[in-house]
Structure formats: C-alpha cells, structure tokens
Amino acid sequence: MTRCRQHWCWKFALGSWLVMGSAIGEGVLQTFTFPFNCAFAQITPDSTLPNNSRVTTQNNISTIEGGTQAGSNLFHSFGEFSVLTGGTAIFNNAADIQNIISRVTGGSASNIDGLIRANGTANLFLINPNGIVFGQNAQLNIGGSFVASTANALQFGNVGFFSATEKNIPSPLLTINPSALLFNQINQNATIQNNSVAPAGKDPAGFDAFGLRVPDGKSLLLMGGNVSMDRGRLNAFGGRVELGGLGEPGSVTLGVDGNNLSLIFPADVARASVSLTNQAAIYVEGAGGGNIAVNSKNLEILGGSILSGGIGQGLGTSETVAGDITLNATGEIKVAGGSSVQNLVRLGTVGNGGNITIDSSSFSLRDGAQLEVSTFGQGNAGNVTVGALNAVDLADAGILSTVEAGGVGKGGNIDINAATLSLIDGSQLVTITRAAFNTQPAGRGDAGNVNVNVTGTVDIAGEKNGLFSAIGSSVETGTVGNGGNITIDSGSFLLSDRAVLTASTSGLGNAGNVTVRTLDAFTAASNTYIFSTVSAGGVGKGGNIDINAAKVSLIDGAQLIASSFGQGNAGNVTVRALDAVDLADAGIFSTVEAGGVGKGGNIDINAAKLSLIDGAQLATVTRRAFNTQPAGQGDAGNVNVNVTGTVDIAG
What's the pLDDT tens digit per position in 391-405? Predict the structure, then answer.
C-alpha cells in the first residue's frame, strides 16, 4: 500500500465527513467523525501468515479469500481494515469454517461505515488493538455471532494464541475454539464506538430493525477499552449482546458454545467505561432467550437510550422463557434522561419474562428514567434486583414490576440491596396488577413484593415519592390477585414531606403487608402516610403494618393507617420500640370506613415509653355513613399498649 499525501488525506476525510453529515435521520442532521490516519477504504493483507489473505476490490466490493486454516478456524491478518460508506467487505470462506478470526496489525483504527459479509454460519472475530468505529451506515450480514475487540490477542486454550501486536504465525494446533481475549497492553485511545442506525430488516415480531444485527439467537460482543454508542443500535433477537472493556492488562474468558458467545471478566483487573447516549439502543427480545450483559467501570445510559429484552409481541409458547439483562460495574451505573432498561412479556405473548440485575458501587436513576419488568401477555414478569456497595438514588424516576391490563401472570419482585436508598422528586418503587384499560381487560395475577435491605439510611422525601404495591381498580372490572408485601430493613428510616408507603387492593384479592425494621430511628414526618387498605370496590383482607425500631417518631401529620373501604377486614398496626414511641400531631388508625364491611384491626404498642402530644391519637373506629356511602359494618379493633416505663398523654 502507498501512503497518501497529507493534503489528499485531508480532502478525502472532509469529503467523507460531508457525505455522512448529509444524512438526515428523524429530522436531525447527523455528523460523525472518524480517527483517520491517512488510510481510507483500505483492506490490506500484511503478509504475516503462512497462507496470506488475498483481497480483490471491484465496484466498492472487496472480496477476502485465502487465509490460513486450522481445523474449522480460518485466520486472516490485515495491515489495515476499513470499509467506507457504500463499500462492502466479503469474507469468501468455505462452508465448513466455524470461526473467521481477523486481526489488524497496523497502527490505524478500523472505520466501518459499509457492509461486512461472511458465508455460511461462521462466527466472525475482528481484533484491532487501535480501535474500531462503526459509522451510522455500518451493517453486518453474517450467519454466526460477531465479536469486535481491541484485545491484543486471542487465546486458544493452552495450545497458543493469535496476536495482533506480536504478529505471530498461528500454530496448526489452533483448531479449538478461542478461549480468551488477551489485553497485554492498553491503548487508552483505542475505543469501540457504534453509531450504526442502518436498516437491518424486520425483527421477529415484524417491526423494523436498525443498526448492527446478527442472526436471531446469535451473539454480538463489543469488547474494549472504552465502549460507546452514540445513537447507534445493536440487535441480537433471542440471542446475546455483551459490552465491556478492560482498563489495564488482563484477560477476559471467552465462552464459545457453537454460535453462542459470552464473556467472563476477571474480578481483580480494572475495567473501562461503557456509555449509551442520544437514543442508543440494544434489542434482544424474540421468541425466547435474549440476554444483555454489560461489564464496566462506569456505565452511563443517557438521552433516551434503551436496553430492551423479553418476549416479542405475539411470540412465545407456554414453555418460553426470556433472557436476562445484567449490568455490572465496579464504579457507578447511571440511567438518566428518559432512558429505560426493560424486560417485558409483550401484548399477545405467551411465556415468562426475564430479570433485570444491577450490580455496582453506586446506582442512580434520574430524570424520567425507568427500570421495568412487566407482563402484558400470558406469563409471569421477571424480577428487578439492584445491588450497590454504596448509594442507590432515585430522582424523578421509577422501578416498576407490573401485571398490565390484558396480562395474566404473577408480577415480579423489586429487591434493593445497598448502603443507602434515597427517593426524591416523584420517584417510586411500584408493583401492581393494573385495572382494565381501553379495550384490554384488567390484569389477573398477584403483584410482586418490594424488598429493601439497606445498612444505612432509607430517605423517602416529597409528594408522590414512595413504595407502592397494589391490585388496581375494582372487582367489577375483573382485577384479580393478591397485593405484594413491602418490607424494609435498614439502619434508619425517614419518611417526610407527603411521601407514602402503600399496600392496597381494589380488586379481588388481599392487600399486602408493610413492614419496616430499623436498627436505629424510624421517623415519619410532615403529612406522610403508611397505608394498608382494602379500597372501595375491593374484596379481600387488608394487610398489616409492622414497625420495629430502636425509636419511633411520628410528627407533623404523619399517620399509620390500616383500613377497609370495601368488603374485607382491615389489618393490624403493630409498633415495637426498644426505647420510645413518640407521636406529636400524628396518628395510628385501624378503621372500617363508610361503605366498608368487615372487622377493624388492632393497634398494638410495645415500647419502653409512649408519648402522645399536640392532638396525637391511637384510634380504631367503624365509621358512620358519609355522602352516598352507607355506614361501615363491622366491629372496631382493640388498642393495646404495653409499655415498661411511662405513658404520657398530654393536651
């Protein structure tokens, strides 16, 4: 290859930028720049193999033949490998090849803005330690899985390796599947970037797909260095998409099971960062399976980006199980700006949904972002598990597990395990079986549980912030199922400024229990509420409220309420404190409300001391008629106070 002169490099780069910059998608002018190094649209063999790769180019189509074969592995080695807009690179391999393994040994990144093709069902590996960039027009047309990596080499068990930096000759013994990606040295400027939004056919449910795509059920792995997606999309319907990177030398185990590939990251090696921005998306939903995995230092999912798994609309059988979405970061995971991570059993679908699992040092969900596991079809929703060594913070965000209108199945659980938990600005953890909506009948199935296990403080502050588990609407619309429990274990607990914890039923089924256990103080203040209720139209038992703490304080309008407005007994309220239970302008109530039919629950106080001041009350009551509602029917509960020290009721 002849190096081009500098002024021609600039002209070509500018021309390519203008061509790509003229593409208009969704009304937005899109521009992308590539790290050109005076090499464009070049696929050049480097003559380092016993049987070298051969490249012939005609009409923007580069056909790649030759290479060195070892068993079902075919090795290619290039000085440079780039495909410009409108170009095509075809690996013309034999049908018996299982793995096409390509390395790039020169000093330039691979810039892919055209089509890469391969024959048969071969997996394709592209290894370039200097970086790989997929432009907005990049496409894949291969029969197997695809791996793009900035690793220095591929390991093959204990028989050898194929290195892009050492340019070694592959041993004839390299007939087994590759077993690891080796990062002998880290080029901090070598990244993997995906901007592809090229048409990619129809997904299994018949919707248009865009971006890089592997065949359904196959794997698509991007392994850096840092990995970024700016508006780009990745598709492996019913297969696997995995992103990750190392920030220092090490090796990543590569699992190869036919065309199914996966990565196992070392625990003791620093990782690189992964980011999805500007409506970037990963889709794996299909007729079963479909996994997404990210392993990084920091992970950002921003600007309306989406990770989508589950069962595609109208697909699946009773044996179908969706795959999981697993996000693992040694640093922070941040989901913000209307972005979402969802694993759904979609409308008209049969089968069980997959899980969402978050594991990080800290986790934040902000600015309209959501985590969601739901069923709209016939099957159970998955669970959401968020684990963080430090804080889990939600601000104007939500974590949802729902049985939606039209859905039949159990809702999944929401589990939070962290050092601290904070919910502000309208943030919610919600498990619910929905009421009928439009032409869809009411959901049928139990709502999931909400479990919070925090070693430090749980701080829920502000109106519309809280934890909710509910059976929606009324029994007349056919909503059937038991509500889930809300359970909080923490070092301390603070509920303030109209925040709420609610377990309720408005359909046919029991409400869940609300349990808060803290090692230190439990404080509810400023018109906050903890409810467990049978709502009007509901048929079922109300749940219990159980508070267990070193000290319990209810102040400034805070209330604990177990009630029945429908047909069913109200639950009990139990408060236990090693020290004092203090109420000031606050109340604990168990009621049969107007229109309710059932027994009221008991109120039990067990503490060292009890203080009621400024209008504070403990009350069990069956209400009289109100407006159009008849009087409540049923015995009121008992109030039981067991205090080893002083009971002080004043005012």
Answer: 999 999 999 999 988
